[in-house]
Amino acid sequence: MSGGNAIRGTRVGAGPMGESERGESAPRRRVSYWCANGHESRPSFALDAEEPEHWDCPRCGFPAGRNEQSPPAPPRNEPYKTHLAYVKERRSDADGEAILQEALAKLRKQREGDF
Fold it and tell me: N or C end of the chain: which has fewer CB within 10 A?
């Protein structure tokens, strides 16, 4: 015996109502898009709607285009860079050595004043 709600498992809009209740759907057309992995996706658009040039592939997430022979290239992901990696891009080893020696000299001078 189940105790509970009689409308359990139903959702708004579900039921025997058909096109007459919701109105007729717009005439549609399917457009093929291909990604770099060769997946084809076929979303449907209203006849009077403008089709986008690119579409995200639902299987792999890569961008897909309408030309099967020349799909868009997958995006290039840049690896995470540490603060040190950014510093090394801006400074040479000689610059780093000079900055280190300057900082050490400053610390030594401070320590001499403390004693």
Answer: N
Residue 52, CA distances (Å) to 31, 56, 63 in order: 10, 10, 12
Identify the pLDDT of residue 54.
94
Calpha distance 102→109 (Å, rounded):
11
Q: Give the global pTM.
A: 0.52
Determine the longest span between alpha carbons in the chain, in angstroms.
Answer: 93
CA distances from 46 to 9, 22, 52, 107 (A): 32, 17, 12, 72
The per-type count for the chain, helices as H runs and strands as E runs, is 3, 6
Residue-wise pLDDT tens digits, 26-52: 899 999 999 999 999 999 999 999 999
The answer to whether residues 42 and 57 touch, using CB atoms and an 8 Å cutoff, is no
Distance between CA atoms of 4 and 68, rounded to whole angstroms?
53
